[in-house]
Amino acid sequence: MQDVAAKMTIQDYSDRLQAIIDHVGSVFRGKPDIVKLTLAALVADGHVLLEDVPGVGKTTLALALARTLGLEFQRVQFTSDLLPADITGVSVYSQKDGSFTFKPGPIFANLVLADEINRTTPRTQSALLEAMSEQKVSIDDKTYDLPSPFIVMATQNPLEHHGTYPLPESQLDRFLLRLSIGYPAKGVERAILLDRKGENPVFDLETLLDQDEFAGIQIRAKDVKISEPVVDYIMAIVEATRSDARVRIGVSTRGALALAQACKALALIEGRDFVIPDDARALVVPALAHRITPSTASGAMDMVQVEGLIEDIVAEIPIPT
Amino acid sequence: MIGGRQLDFIFQVTLYAILTIPYLLILLGQGVDPITAVVFGVGLVGSWFTYQRGWAKPEHARWWNLVIIAVLVFSILQFFLTDSSVLDVGIRFVMVLTLIKLFSRASTRDEHQLYLLSFSLLAVATTVNEDLTFGVLFAAYVIIGTISLAVFHLKNEMNAHPRVAFRHPQPMTRPYMMVLFGMSIAILAASTAIFFSFPRVGLGYFVSQERDHVSMVGFSESVELGGHGVVRDNPAVVLRVEFDGEPPAGLSGTHWRMMAFDEYDGSGWARTLERKEKPLWKRNGRYGLTQIYPSSESDQEPWEIYIEPLQTNIVPTPWPARGIYLGTGGVRIPFGPRSGIMTYDKYGDIRHTVESKLGIAYRIWPGNPPTSETGKPTFAPEEEEIYLQLPPFSDRFGQLVTQITVGAETEQEKADAVERWLNANLTYTTDLPKVGANPVESFLFEAKRGHCEYFATSAVMMLRRAGVKARLVNGFLGGSFNDVGGYWSVRQGDAHSWVEYWDPRFGWVMLDPTPATDMPPTNAVMNTLRSYLDAARLSWMKWIIEYDLSAQIELMRDLGRALRPDGLMQNAKQGGSDSDGSPLPWRPLVVGVIFVIACIVSFWIGRYQSKRKWLVAASSAGMGGAALLTELYLVDGSTTLHVLMGAGPLLATVAGMVMATRSRTHVDRVRTIFRRVEKVAERRGYKRRSDEGAGDFLARLDTLVDGNEFAIFRTSYLHARFAGAAVAEDELEALERMALELVEMLKSIERLADDRLTSKHTRR
Predict the structure, then answer these.
(1) Interface contact flag, B167 A36, Cβ < 8 Å
(2) ipTM of the complex model
(3) Is A191 exposed, middle or buried (0-12, 13-18, 19+ CB in 10 A)?
(4) Using CA atoms, how far apart are residues B763 and B692, in angstroms rounded to an integer?
(5) CA–CA distance, A88 with A143 (Å, rounded to integer)
(6) Are the C-beta atoms of residues B219 and B310 closer than 8 Å to each other?
(7) In 3-state terms, what secondary structure has residue A248?
(8) Each residue of B163-186: pLDDT tens digit?
């Protein structure tokens, strides 16, 4: 694998990743930008929070990516009575040899789709989020490493407030990007309706990569260069969120790092060995909007409003050209 | 935080500069004792490093304040207990305070105080330094000070509002600094204009105050035979003479008389007559000197003389002078510290009673040596003896004198005989041989060579031996013409001794027994340099130090004349024949201003338009030509001046181009390339949106054309700009070529009337 990676040029990586986007795009249609950003998050080894109404293709997207990238996929539907053990797994007593054996939960997979994460209790949420940040699970004094790569794609429904437990800021911070898919364009939706025969075509999707190849891409993305003017631009954005009167808590250093990390992955997808300010500009809202606390009385704000706020702040910072 | 760091560095440098400039001024004006000077210099440098290390802490402020109080108490005690002047104690206190603040600097408040201290130091410096250096350094202070204050303000604002700072990642962009610099120049120009137009009464009263150290041209009031050769090459200027019109011929033979000596004790000269000064009588607007120096009428215009501060208040007068007057041309002294009178004593030495330590200006009406018996000046009989006094001499000396003066009847014949003999038998040298117990005899009989003092002393001795009343006179001989300033200057190295003998027909007559010598060749470059420096000094004296109400009125009159519609022509016709005072040298000024403007324009074009070769060449040649033509038309100077005028703008262009290649980093050049494309696109209606970076913008432009030129340019540009690697020269040139093609392409596409395209565009 190392030999292959050494021979691959940036353009080769880019071609592969573009092929993946096209491939996923054949089943998750009309949203190439969303596919690209989600793929960027996966390449950057970051978790994605999809915040959207049900039925716009969140699961399809996750499944398509998992299949294309050759990742082991698990899906967990979060409900109010879901327990931490239901995610992480349990130790079961075996009567045969009188010992406990560990039955891994659904979290032991490369790509975990955590559906409607805000429906479950904070206790269960934190079990998942702990696993996300530490890449391992502790049960009965024993620690089990999660597979690598380990990526969580969580979805949450922004509209329903009854029976939901909103994720606290500290937990939201663990997601690299927050995306919302939105309804497909009319023409695309029409085509989907016309073309759909039988079951979701995502289940027939071919695998394009094996796990090692995907790991190689992830490693390569870390080596993408980020030059001083771009860093300065990111710093300016981060500082601006901290000093804006409309923001109570600005973007943390982890947030700035996340933005830089996502930028690198996006640059690799675009076929560049270096980050440009446009990358940062494109990723500002997905990477930072869920990391700030507005200065409203409750500290809460509609996702669209927060994104507008971020856009406002960023608009005042000239993009280095 | 690049911008902030850069800003901070500029702030530090300018702050130290405006503290160093007053310090240098005080140092050059010798306004402070050497220990304080050294301590301050070392402290200034040291504090830079302690500040960088962040040694000063705000919590130490209390202790520092205690130190300040201690220094204050010490200074007050010093003032009352010792006889130091207020000024000296004050200077020392402000300097020590500045040092303490520099070392204890931990907050913006301390920096504010440092600015105040810098202003105080400058104010102090004005009282101790009235030299040309003040003008130069003051100009630098105004420029740097303006920049420093602006940067200081900006820095404070940025610290107070970090968000503002980050909005503009590079606040110290070139335009900002250029505007700041331009503003500083404008402020300097404005303050200069105010200086010349604001009504002034006289020169600074502070300046004339007694201080411990004032730099002065040495002039000794006693003569010892022996150590005279040293000053022979001292280039310090003693006096400068300006003439109305052409300088008269024979100036190099002019004897500038200072003081006379009567008693010779065998090794040195002294004055024995009672020191009693009588005021000179003023007649026809001048003090007459005819009763002191025998002379005949001359039709020469009066000379205007500026003397440097001397250790004596004797006034050098060319022999023979017929009249003298304090003040020059339009500069009259109605009142103030410079008013004084002229006196003379029994030796005929002329003194002034002006209290100034600045040197004075006066006018001299020169005369010719006496030809006919111009009356008999009084000669006190009790003085006869002293002018015949002789120390013991051997018989050999007596025999020699008798032998020389055989056949000579009158005083003049005897004097001529002595002069002839000395000239024929002895040689002039500054390389002194060892002298015996009787310097005159060892000079006459053994060494047979010596310098002017030996010649003069021997001549006096021989004349007295022959019964002629004679005395030794010290002063200066000759001098040199300063081509740059157009005046005559006499240096300390021109010091000379000669003889005056009593001729009953006329009075005291000058006799110089020293044979004429060839001066050793001097370094031509150094001389030219010295001439320039000295000319600048004279202008400084005339236009800054001596500048007062009457000079101001004169200047305004000249300006008014020059600015009259027909003023230029009239003035050109009149030439230098203006006889009312000293007119403003407006023609050299105009030439100078045009020359400076030409150089600045050339430099600017070389610096910022270096890509447009034809423009650079044309402007450089044009500016050089313009300066040269102006100079030819207005002043018609020397060949050197022609060359300077023509070559100055050329050199400025070259300097600008060198600067351009040096200072333009690759990043700047890369960005300039993109800006050009961006500008042209904007003119065609495709403006870069505020949320578009270069990448998105170029991708959008790529959709306009069929080819993939924009895509290629986009890749290359983004790589050059953001890959963080060094950009090779050929890569840059390729980019520039591509940009030119794109510009052409953009010009050919249809201009977009509305913002149609933006709606078509989707992000990424």
Answers:
(1) no
(2) 0.85
(3) middle
(4) 9
(5) 11
(6) yes
(7) strand
(8) 544 444 455 567 777 888 888 888
**Cis peptide upstream of residue A149 (ω within 30 degrees of 0):** yes
The owner of tokens 């003066």 is B405
Question: Distance between CA atoms of A137 and B139, rounded to whole angstroms?
Answer: 73
Query: 3-state SS of chain A: helix, strand, coil percent to 5?
Result: 50, 15, 35
Residues 6+ apart with CB under 8 A from A67: A73, A202, A205, A206, A207
Instruction: Tokens for B689, please give them.
Output: 């949106």
Sequence-ordered list of residues with C-beta below 8 angstroms from that of B170, at least 6 positions apart, any chain: B2, B3
Question: From edge to edge, which strands make up the β-sheet containing A175-179?
Answer: A73-77, A111-115, A151-156, A47-51, A175-179
Helix (H, G, I), strand (E, B) or coil at B255: strand
pLDDT at position B167: 46
A242 chain-B contacts, CB cut-off 8 A = 163
Please give the pLDDT value at position A152: 92
The answer to whether the beta carbons of residues B653 and B608 sit under 8 Å apart is no
Q: How many helices (H) and strands (E) does chain A have?
A: 13, 11
List, for residues B266-301, the tens digit of each pLDDT value: 878 888 877 778 877 777 667 778 777 777 777 778
Which residues contact residue B34 at a Cβ distance below 8 angstroms, ignoring those fewer than 6 apart?
A: none
Predicted pLDDT at B331? 47
3-state secondary structure of A113: strand
Who contacts B557 (Cβ-Cβ below 8 Å, separation ≥6)?
none
Which CA distances in Å does B627 have to B56, B162, B475, B484, B644?
A: 54, 49, 44, 18, 9
Q: How many CB atoms lie within 10 A of CB B628?
A: 22
- Report which residue type is found at A243: S
Which of B169, B721, B722 has the CB atom closest to A236's CB atom?
A: B169
Look at the block and give the residue holding tokens 């001794």. B497
**The pLDDT of residue B575:** 41
Residue B229 pLDDT > 60: no
- Give the percent of chain A with pLDDT over 70: 95
Which residues does residue B470 pair with via DSSP β-bridges, in sequence order? B501
In tens, the pLDDT along B73-128 reads 888 888 888 777 777 888 888 899 999 888 888 888 888 889 999 998 888 887 77
pLDDT band of residue B745 (cuts 50, 70, 90) is confident
Burial of A234 (0-12, 13-18, 19+ CB in 10 A): buried
For residue B148, is it left (φ>0), alpha (ψ between -120 and 50) or beta?
alpha
Mean pLDDT of B338-349: 77
Instruction: Indicate the residue of A232, A315, A321 with minimum beta-carbon distance to B691.
Output: A315
Give me B637's structure tokens. 């100077």
CB contact residues (below 8 A), chain A span 132-191, against chain B: none
Q: How far is CA A245 from CA A113, A285, B182, in A?
A: 36, 18, 37
B692 interaction partners in chain A (CB closer than 8 Å)? 278, 281, 319
Supply the pTM of this predicted model. Answer: 0.46
* A2 interfaces chain B, CB cutoff of 8 Å: no
Half-sphere exposure of residue B590, counting CA atoms within 13 Å on the CB side?
19
Q: Is B577 exposed, middle or buried (0-12, 13-18, 19+ CB in 10 A)?
A: exposed
- Angle in degrees, 0-180, between the axes of helices B61-81 and B86-104, rounded to the nearest 10: 170
pLDDT in tens, A12-36: 889 999 999 999 988 888 888 999 9
CB pair distance less than 8 Å for A278 and B721: no
How does residue A236 score in pLDDT terms, banded at 50, 70 and 90?
A: very high
Q: Please state the φ and ψ torsions of residue B625, each to the nearest 5 degrees.
A: -60, -45
